[in-house]
Request: fold
Amino acid sequence: MVPILIIVAVLLIAFYFAYAGLIRKRNGVQESFAGIDVQLTKRHDLIPNVIAVAEKFMDHEKNLLKEIVDLRTAAVGQGHAKGPKEIANSLKAENQLSNKLGALMVNVENYPTLKSDTSMKAVQDALSDVEENLAAARRFYNSSVRVLNDSIMVWPWSSLAAAIQVEAYPYFEATKDSKEVPDVAKMMA
Amino acid sequence: MNLPLFVEEADYEKGFASHYDKEIRPALEELESQRMALLNTFKKKVLKFLIIPWTTIVFLGALIAFKTGESYLITTVAYNSLLVFIPLALYMSHPLWKYKVEVKSKILPLICSFFGQLTYKNKAEIDESILALEIFPSYETASVEDSIEGNYKDLNLKIFELILKIHGRKKSRTTFQGLVLIVNHTKDFQAKTLVTRDLGGLGNWIEQPKGLERIHLEDPDFENRFEVHGNNQVEARYLLTTAFMERLLKLSQTPLGRGIRCEFVNKQVVLTLRSNKNILEPNSVLQSTLSLKTLHLFLAQMNEIFSLIDALKIQR
Reply:
């Protein structure tokens, strides 16, 4: 009887530690995504300033500027994502916004007056700083996701994860667009 | 006087040959003449005031010992006379030591001017708060020499040789000897990040810094060679970009970089490179003032250090 009780106790303790470990790792992922969120919020706040300055000079880019405004609105509308699906949607929206912002910055090169404008330089510097912090936050997020996903893809933790509804989270990957070499001639046309 | 020409052997040496011909070579030629004159004077003095008097005294002592039959007189006279001649020899060699300092004072600033607005000082003061950083071991006395300070690509930096010691009852122990690099960052750090060598499981556990958590980075080569600790996971990754990690790895594979450690704190990047040898030393007075091999090595080391600064991406 006593050996059976000991075995049961050991199994219960092991189960508890496994459960606590998974919850801790999931919380780690959510915390790391919160770090991305902070930088994304800063970027969202900067975009109106970029648009305001660019609009004065870029008569022929009204479509691009409108797209950026719409994408920003959509990204902000995602709110503070927590679950894997919400995060995946948020990342998709942010990637689209990143691509259009990148296209805008390339087009700025066509407008020497805009390029040398002090407000534009200040905004570009601020945006560059945010992007660098965002890149660092993404790396931390992906690192946390890897730790969680490694755990829940291996049995018996995979069964435990399914039982307590801890799911795998998406990585913050480069989109197909950003992986392709940009056609600068097409962008500048 | 025919000093050899400097031949550029690497990309980072581009332009140094003309700088050498214009700025360094004339100074080297002057110093080389000075060295030959000093050496000749020293040899004559040694012969006139040491060798001849000492051998005369020993000979006289031997003569007296032979006459009196007191053989111990030879050794007594020989050893006791050394008590006078050794201090005299040290006194006479003083100009040679001064010459080495003069070489560094004259030549190193000229070499450093090639890289940017950098100045050289033989001795320098150090802020005690820097030595209190996690990156340095405990110490009781600190001595700084061969300090290079100034601007490199609009960044304020300081490079110097540092020796830290702890004094026991019977003897002193050196806790650190090597090169220190301090660069003022343009951005204010909120957190602390420390990069140290991977000492294996037990070594890492013993050396674990207090109050900092382990930061796991993506680069497996970097993870194998270094341990990173910090109190902000995101900022650590902001500072340790892939380019910087690659540079740090490359530097760690050079003889100078084997004991490399790095700390980001208080708007500064502090790097330490352990070395038992003096890094910025001219040749002995018995050899030509500055061999081109020493110059190539110094340029290679400075290139590694400046490439690391470039990889910090802190120029705006």
In short: The radius of gyration of chain A is 22 Å. The CA atoms of residues 34 and 172 of chain A lie 13 Å apart. Helices of chain A lie at 2-57, 62-77, 84-108, 112-115, 118-152, 157-163, 176-179, 184-188. The mean pLDDT of chain A is 85.
